[in-house]
């Protein structure tokens, strides 16, 4: 059974590694060890002044 990994930056599907995965969308390289543990910053909230 194949598991699908997603890019931590753009959330598109990564290629089939096995050591370094690559995202065709944003051209990012992600090590397999970092897929589950990579920090993904939260989107900044924009305050609306009334």
UniProtKB/TrEMBL annotation:
A GO-annotated cellular component: DNA-directed RNA polymerase complex
Keywords attached to this entry: DNA-directed RNA polymerase, Transcription
Superkingdom of origin: Bacteria
Name assigned to this protein: DNA-directed RNA polymerase subunit RPC12/RpoP
Organism this protein belongs to: Nonomuraea jabiensis
């Amino acid at each position: 059974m194949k598991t699908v990994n997603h890019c931590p930056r753009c959330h598109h599907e990564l290629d089939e590694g096995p050591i370094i995965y690559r995202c065709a969308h944003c051209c990012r390289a992600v090590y397999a060890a970092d897929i589950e543990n990579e920090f993904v910053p939260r989107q900044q909230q924009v305050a609306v002044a009334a």
